[in-house]
Amino acid sequence: MNTLEATTGQTRPRVGVLLPDTDPAAWIVSAVEKLAECSDIVSLHHRRARRVPWKGILDPLDRRMITGPNAEAKRPVDLPVQASQAPWPTPDAVDIVFCLGVDIDGSLNVQQDNLPVPPSPRWGIWDLQLPADLGRGATIDGLGTETVCLRQIGGDRILRPSRVRVHTLSPAITRQRLLWRASHLPVRGLRDLIADDLPANEPDLPSLAVAQHRRPVRALRTALRRTLRKNGWYLGVQFEPPASPELHADDLHFVHPPGDRFWADPFPVVISDDIAHIYLEEWKDPVGRGQIAVLEVNRDGGFKHLGTCLETDGHLSHPHVFNWSGERFMIPETSSNRTVEVYRQQNGDPLQWELETVAMEQVHAVDVTVEQIGDRWWMWTNLGQPETSVHDELHIFYCDSPLGPWTPHPANPVVSDPGRARPAGGLFFWGQRLCRPAQDCSHRYGRALTIFEVTELTTSRFRERPLLRLEPGSFGANRLHTLNTDRWIRVIDLHRDRRRWP
Question: d(Cα 397, Cα 462) in Å, to the nearest integer?
């Protein structure tokens, strides 16, 4: 049984596909291959598409920044059903039609190169709504994202809107991200249609032009900043926090690390009425990668660095600590190893942890957090694809134990927007409201932090709404991205650029 059948209980849908060419772009072939895994492609046609030239004097240099597979490279479609100019099947022989990379007007009965589009299949005819000026979206003063979605031809439905983070220095990379993301949307939209779980609101689809003459200036400014400055993450600690996650600069006691390192991703754990431990990512400049360290905090404001509790050959960060069955566990971010690993604390020692299990393998998962809600455990994490940004898409999983095995939510990714996808700490309750802190990574990593209320969470549905936003400028910082609380202590990390030399 394929994934779509397993999650919906339905038989394989029958799909028709209209392509721009017999050898279309790689992203289009990828979309067709994904559809073929979970549906029967009963008709595959093509028509010659209008070529849109890539413009700009810097574009040849820009294209050299592309390091992964090229979404626009030509590839043949190797499927049992070959591209054909034969008539489409009758409408009742196909459930849905996808127009991939093909411009089509709003009429369901137009002739295209003598190829009739079938009228009114069961779930309609859909195309991909890409930005008009593809890959040249908001950078300086706009949203910092571009949007792609599925659009119903002759209808008013929008499916699976997905925002992609703009690469501020490279329209070519942004274009690649958009096209590879678009390759995932047809199969996601098909799953939603089968589940009859259409979004209530249509997304805003901005078309924002980039000032091409500013790109060299921006590139020079960025290179200069990276040469002279380095990351400067530090902590803000609040004692006796109120129930509300509202936070102000006057509430915080700021804790700065030594000059050769930064501290980020803090997770506090109260040990007693007077002592708490803060697990965090410690990046030491001489080491050049993250390790997990522990600070001891007194309720009266005293701090002590206990030492490193976990280090490997790869980068470690985001040490999510939780309790289960009377013991303490940790899930650090091990995305450099393409795993999700669970560690168990040994003998209550904050510096002693042993690997308990590898919950997932061959995944690029960042900022994993787990929470027991009722009798079920839930995992929240951003999963990255090789061709797109890791900031963009939130996935959730569920199981009976935090050790797995984990079942993916059928609506994954439940959020596809770098402005609110990436976790910013563990979930918590604010009164009766289940809250999820999320990073805004639309312009840059850690742009701001938003608290969302999870209004619906089942094994088939997910909904949330924003409650509160924290801006770094109100704390005298330029970035922030993690907020966690345990009983009498709340910790947030903040950022200011540091000088590389005294």
Answer: 12
Q: Each residue of 5-16: pLDDT tens digit?
A: 444 445 789 898
Q: What local confidence, expressed as pLDDT, does residue 290 receive?
A: 97
Helix (H) or strand (E) holding 236: strand 233-239
Q: Are 206 and 137 in contact (CB under 8 A)?
A: yes
CA distance 264 to 492: 8
Distances (CA, A) of 179 to 71, 72, 100, 343, 413: 6, 8, 11, 38, 17
Cβ 435 vs Cβ 467: under 8 Å: yes
Class of domain 230-238+251-497: mainly beta
Query: What whole-number distance in Å separates Cα of residue 55 and Cα of residue 77?
Result: 28
Q: Who contacts 146 (Cβ-Cβ below 8 Å, separation ≥6)?
A: 131, 135, 137, 138, 163, 164, 166, 174, 177, 178, 206
3-class SS of residue 108: coil
Q: CA-to-CA distance for 392 and 178, rounded, in angstroms?
A: 11
Average pLDDT across the chain, whole number? 83
- Report DSSP state, residue 231: -
SS (H, E, C) 361-395: ECCCEEEEEEEEECCEEEEEEEECCCCCCCCCEEE
Question: Which amino acid is residue 66, in one-letter code?
Answer: I
pLDDT at 298 over 50: yes
State the Cα torsion 31-32-36-40 to the nearest 10°.
130
Spans of all domains in the chain? 3-220, 230-238+251-497
Structure tokens at 219: 């590139």
What pLDDT, in 10s, does the model give residues 42-65?
Answer: 877 776 554 444 444 445 555 666
CB 169 within 8 A of CB 219: yes
> What pLDDT, on the 0 to 100 scale, is given for residue 415?
96
pLDDT at residue 344 greater than cutoff 80: yes
CATH (residue range 3-220): 3.40.50
Q: Give residue-wise pLDDT tens across range 129-167.
A: 888 766 554 443 345 788 899 999 887 789 999 998 887
